[in-house]
Amino acid sequence: MLQSLLYPDTVAVIGASGTPGKVGHAVVENLVEGGFKGRVVPINPRLERLLGLPCHENLAAFGESVDLAVIAVPTAAVKAAVKDSIKAGARSIVVITAGFKEVGHAGAALEDEIVQLCHRAHVRMVGPNCLGVINSHHGLNASFAAQMPSPGGISIISQSGALCTAILDWAAARHLGLAKLLSVGNKADLNEIDFLEALGDDDDTKVIVAYLESITSGDEFVKVAQSVSAKKPVVVLKVGTSRAGERAASSHTGSLAGADMAYGAAFRRAGVIRAESFEDLMDAARAFAMQPMPRGNRVAIITNAGGPGIMAADAVENLGMTVAVLGSNSASALRARLPSAASVGNPIDVLGDANPERYAVALNIAQEDSQVDAVIVLLTPQAMTWPAETARAIAASMQGKKPVVAAFMGGKDVMPGRDELVSANLPDYPSPERAARALKVLVERQTWLNRPPRVISRFPVNRRRAERIIGRHLRTGRFQVNEVDGKSLLRAYNFNVPSGQMAYDADEAVEIAFRTGFPVAMKIVSPDIMHKSDFGGVRLGLASPEQVRDAFDLMMLRIGRAFPQASLEGVYVERMAPPGREVIMGMNRDPQFGPMLMFGLGGIFVEVMKDVTFHLAPITAGEAMQMLEQTRSYALLRGVRGQAAVDLDAIAGGLQRISQLVTDFPVITELDINPFIVGDVGHAPMVADVRMTLAEK
Amino acid sequence: MLQSLLYPDTVAVIGASGTPGKVGHAVVENLVEGGFKGRVVPINPRLERLLGLPCHENLAAFGESVDLAVIAVPTAAVKAAVKDSIKAGARSIVVITAGFKEVGHAGAALEDEIVQLCHRAHVRMVGPNCLGVINSHHGLNASFAAQMPSPGGISIISQSGALCTAILDWAAARHLGLAKLLSVGNKADLNEIDFLEALGDDDDTKVIVAYLESITSGDEFVKVAQSVSAKKPVVVLKVGTSRAGERAASSHTGSLAGADMAYGAAFRRAGVIRAESFEDLMDAARAFAMQPMPRGNRVAIITNAGGPGIMAADAVENLGMTVAVLGSNSASALRARLPSAASVGNPIDVLGDANPERYAVALNIAQEDSQVDAVIVLLTPQAMTWPAETARAIAASMQGKKPVVAAFMGGKDVMPGRDELVSANLPDYPSPERAARALKVLVERQTWLNRPPRVISRFPVNRRRAERIIGRHLRTGRFQVNEVDGKSLLRAYNFNVPSGQMAYDADEAVEIAFRTGFPVAMKIVSPDIMHKSDFGGVRLGLASPEQVRDAFDLMMLRIGRAFPQASLEGVYVERMAPPGREVIMGMNRDPQFGPMLMFGLGGIFVEVMKDVTFHLAPITAGEAMQMLEQTRSYALLRGVRGQAAVDLDAIAGGLQRISQLVTDFPVITELDINPFIVGDVGHAPMVADVRMTLAEK
Prior knowledge:
CATH topology of the largest domain in chain A: Rossmann fold
Radius of gyration of chain A: 32 Å
Number of domains of chain A: 4
Distance between the termini of chain A: 37 Å
Helix content of chain A: 25-40%
Number of strands of chain A: 31
CATH class of the largest domain in chain A: Alpha Beta
Structural class of chain A: alpha/beta
Shape of chain A: flat
CATH architecture of the largest domain in chain A: 3-Layer(aba) Sandwich
Strand content of chain A: 15-25%
Oligomer: homodimer
């Protein structure tokens, strides 16, 4: 895939310029100076030669076929250039020129036209409005970025061209190799998902790093990212989520689920590592590109000073990893080979006058210790410190089986050492905390890789009945499903709901109450009244025929006064749900990623503490249980201070059945079961109330 | 203060060495090459001259008096060197030599001896086991660190010598100036608090940065840091707190209050800015040293690319600051002076081909906008970007009234620009996120500076009565105060406690119940039974004489069976507290910082959600209210979903009275009021239960 884009033999540059500083000049210059072994064909009607290459008036004049065309002509001339490229047999086109969708309607229309041209010819296009593409392993710098990176394992997908130049400049300063760099621009044709897929199959790419402002298709992204993540790490910095989530939504699930939550849930599902910042992104990238995966989270720390060792130990613990307890063999081996003043615990302190040999000894012992999964090597520039030599000794001691990361703290004197580390493929960080954080992302990925196979259980349900209920609502244009119908629907999916029935007068209400058994709840049913309980439309715990009769009459009286126009369908009389722990479970359909399930403890835990978890549907039994476990209030469900545990499996089962329901019926856009009442193990849980919204088209 | 240490005229180096690489050589070399204008006196019996200076056999042979003596002889010779120094009139001594307290008992004894020598002579000592001291404004490098920083506004106090060398090396790479660098070593005499105080009065020091592993005296630290913070920023990285807080404690307050919480509370009180990591420490230091304080938290962002602008906007919002809405004058001024494609909102996008002039225009307009409190300037190295020229233009546009920070993203090409920024006193950061975080610490400090004056209210209380109760307990060796006595004590401090009395038989219990009024609670009182309620020793809501009588007899029967040896003092009968919201308030005496007050909502909020706040006593009314406001569950107190607010002032008043009580009686080591029952405004809150522990000596 994308062979002609990333491994072309012949590259035409339409809009090649003789003026240094112009984009059309920079592209040709970069192709020539980047070491491209293929043929570069500059197209410019006013030049004979450019940078030693023969120039052509147009592609027709060139006469031969090209693999890749890079277009850097003014906006108005792009369409013709695309046509010429297609005619010349180009399989891929990079449109660097800006002035399309990003400037308004006319630009968007023009962009559509050129995409159509490409689609009809089965030609793929990058851009428009992009920096271009780089493939260091092919010597290809088809961009106007000044710097060509050396070959390396990190590939970049970026929705910001400027960020590409910043990364290239940073890589140049740190002598760090990159594989591919793909500036996606306006994503008119090829987008981040296409590139993710291509890089997943690219052997030169060890880790994929993406900077994204938007995602073209959430579903597709999750699917592709999940399959790519199984092969290699994908690290994403997603920006622009801070002001999101302000959507008006009628359900709890909707108001708690913002875009940021959805990205979190989607990335978790897909195994995508989410970077918190630009530095975090590149820190993770280097660790993945350069080091093997750890088997666990037990970290050994080697240092030539106490302070940085403590900083690293604090960071390891604060990040939820473990400061390894070294095996007894290690301690004696260290004692035998290090000076007596050295500390042979963990952190291993090789002392301020440590020579390279001492670091090598400690690193070898740490790597061989079966109690150690990963190593952080720290160095401060003291009087007797040789940073470059020490870095070489460390590099020579790398066994390649466990990840090793380094923090050489300082600036001027340690820089030669840091450069040695980079060239030895050992990721170096400016502080112990960042080195620890880099290890942490390796551990996180390993945890994701170790997850059990995802098996979605399907429960036997009465899908036909649910279909009938939903169909009736859609036909009659009732997109808010009332409690009675909602409960029927849930019953079809094997939820327990209290027995109950609609009553149309007080006598009937009493009759139903006798049938279901006291105490009962009574709730007004009207499509016109949203917040029933605010207007006396809900009465709970009615224990006698008199109370039922009084409640019915009062309800009619008061609702009639407050809402003289409301159409009343009747009063729903149902047996009170048994007491138990109230939880809330729901679903909100994210515009990007589809059905997001929510779970939380009811009442204040949701409303005040916002203690809820999200997961993309469909979910497995294990994921449902994780949704419970990841709330802060989980201990309350498991039982604290003598209280019994509630039936956790019943809750997890409920979440899975919601998952099945909303997967079966994409027309359900929002669903809240609030509360879902759950008791001790063995007692059937009960849906006490439900709200549901259907899509209007 | 410390004049002779930091501004000496004559410095002797005892243990001066002719061997390059040795500490005693490095110190003399650093003094000579650092540009010290005073006299350097190397002491070495085997050398005639050293680095062009005459050497002396000993200080007596030198014959004149010295201000500062730096000692770098072997451990065994240090004592004699200290004696010689004192004899030669030294007012300050720096002992670089190691091998004292840090290696064991003999070392500690020797360390004590030399401290005593110094104390008797009123001479101050730094170290032993330290790197030395540097005062760049005096040209003084009395350390064995290779690098002498240029003069600047940042002063460093460090408990790790290696971290000093790392900071010096980093400063050298970034051409960054420092004022003083003080390596505290073993802190045998002068410690971090002395240095904090001295730097507080030092005009060359604009910001104090400290790396601390321990604090010598918590009380003293808070007092000094608070007074220094009023004058200049103090930023501290405190390490080694991750495994702390495992202390066995019988109270809730104790088990929730770890050392880390205590440091947090102490730093908050003192206005100390707490760094989260080494980079955070130096990032904050540069912002404080170089920029004025902001008046608010509204941030303008100037960028030459969209992506980094969004990253900065995300970071600003996530840190709780505001992306400023520019004034309408600004927008029109920007529109008039920037190209039409530029974005004149915020972020202000000066476009990828921005020249230095455009940055200058945008920066001037942003600084002049009254809706803007601070500015972040971002740059990515694009085709037309001139980093150094742009940095100079930015520097020339600085108006000095609002803080401006920069992030020039990249490495090789942007470095000349970053160097220009540093020399123009403009803090630069490698990413938008770190630039935003640096502004955030400025905002935090300004908030602290703006806090209202701290006025501790004193409530009229019956202190004599409390004294009597405590005195009786101490005399009889009862260090656990039982509920009955605890309530009497709290009543003396004007807490409301339910009326009640001790009963010694069932008749008496009934009589008391009639007097206080039903329903009542009954609780066994015995010094031998800790968890009364686990053994049927607590009965609540007894509503009739029969219930009281039954409860008394059953209690006696069961406790007699379970604890045949227990001494029973009787049964406490009290009126049930009225219903209300249960909160918990308490105090735990931190070994470092003294009385730490705790507040949280009762029950699961404390036990499961750990939703509690801490504050050092004594507290003001405002601080007490902050303790409430800073819990996650605060909304529950203020009233949510139609529930009435509870009497917040009653809770704040309770916290202040506990503050007064534990300040009046330092012998109280732990105190838990759990629950404190608080109702609507106007209803007196009630202490339902209390536990208290007194110090055993």
